[in-house]
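Appendix B. Chain record.
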Amino acid sequence: MDKNYTQRKTYIATLDDLASKELLHLEMLRLYLPNSGKKNPIDMGAMAYSDRKFVIKMSSYENTDYLVVLESFLPARCTFLKRFIEYIITGGYRESSLHSLIAKVRKAFNIIDGYKETGAFLESFDDTSKVYQMITHDLRHKLYVGELTAYQAKLKQVSIAFLILIGHGRGTFDHIIKNTIQFSGKSKPTPPRELDEIRFGYETYKSLALGLTKSLVNNEHLPILLKMPDYETYLFPYANHRVTPFYSCPTDVYNDEEGRLVTIEEYCAKRPDKCKNELASNLRRTKTYLDEANTNMRAKCRRAFATTAMQAFQMLFMMLSGSYVSEMKKIEFDGAFEKAKSVTQKSYQVVKFRASGKIIQYELAHGAVELFKHYIRLREWVLDGKVFDELFFSLKVKSWEPCIVDPSSIRGFQRKKVIGVFMPASFEVLTSRQFRKTKSIFLHEQPEVSKETVAEVLGHSERTNEAHYLEVSPEVAKSEFSNFWESAHEAIQHISFNKDAHDGQHLSVAAGHCTDYQKPEPAIDAPPIKPDCVSQYGCLFCKHYVCHANDEDDVHKLFSLLYIVIGVMNASSEMAKSKELLLMLSSRVRQILLKIKSKSSLGAKNVKLYRERVFNYGELTPYWENRLQRYESMGMIFSEENIGESFEL
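Structure tokens predicted for this chain:
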């Protein structure tokens, strides 16, 4: 049976109206929040109906975008809305925050209305408790069968609990919540994006931003020749005409290869099913439209191109600064911005702005600062003498009037205008959290940048940075994993099984033997420790290093070296970057010893003997014994218990 959805009568109120007027018939209320980034009023009253349907094409200032079944009206929901308005007024919410709060409440009602026989929710204590427990049991079942994660179940439960808090107050809220099972779980951490993906996204948005800006600001004639990183394409006035390697939607009246209108002969060849007079009429009409767009610099199509360019610059700013949309849209602009030297890199600058009365700063490369000078030119061109306080802005629908950036429009811009059109459809949407995490990882991988500096650059505490942003980038993880196995397997090639280990051709060194002393050469590409004939650590990564498998002294040297390496790692109070190198060295030594152990009975005997003598009794070779004493004189404490626990062959 089809439900009778209909458009009801509504009225519009502002945030000031909520505080100053006694509003009646709250089921008809639409709240206008012009400073939230939303162009049209938000339909709060629709939540009073359990059967409602969102229709995006109906959205306008005059009309609500919700259809409802009038018979599904629930008086208890109006009581809730009244208390919700009181909560808003006493909470002192700003319009931008209020929009998110209303969305949170609507999402909770959507969950409830997705179940049958939940209309009594919020009518009484018993009814509310019954519905809450019923939904909780269903969430637990979905958790057990794998339809939800614990964190997803927790979010749904918490959102419904918020309705109880508003509708019934703290006492009832505590009583119902405490007597029902609670879900616990953490959100899945955001993985960092690979740098190649971010570079590709950056170059794509940069090409869009600069290409469109140049054409618009210089009043160039359409079509626009857009030079993307790997291809070129023409942009014609019609928004539905796009031809790229990732999207093909040509219009017969355009020659998308040469960037012009087709001739009547070409048009007839493309459309043999149409008569020539009709095609000639279409061609004249399109030419008139194109001429108008090239005469009127405020034509509809140029407004669309300007919006795309500004959104591309907004994406670039978030990628380069690591800011969130909510932060970016509040940045104030007075015609200039302050610059200072970077605390991390010489090629960077600190750019300072104001937002909500506070100074905020971002680290940008010199090239990025120059890039945004182009945005300033575009901004002036779009405003055309108008004044707007924020640095970034959007345009109202079918208008050149500026308005506050809507975060959802940035996501929609990526999904609808860019991904699948100017870049592959498989490319995942880029997010601010990914930018911040990738930037944090990049800075942490620079040996000269401290943890304190990274936290300062990203504008949060060291604790937050360590808890949520301290990871290894995908490229580094792959590289380290590859280097580890390359290093480990290549080390085996340096083992000699000659019967005569002391043939006079190999010079004895602290880590084994050398075939060409004082001429160090790396055995692998980009070794973690540079070969060095002085320190002896780099010997194991040198092309000339040789270990004699049938030589007790060489096995003794390797175990002594391993003892020192493990001791230095365990004695360090912090996980410094140098420990990663020692870990690689430790793995290389273990691989050599394992190979010696497995290849001959004599090798296995030597490995067993010197493992015990070194790790149980601390008998090191003279060279490594001197190293041990030197480290201890520097204040390092070598605990034999910890070294033994860390050793595993």
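Further analysis of this model is presented in Appendix C.
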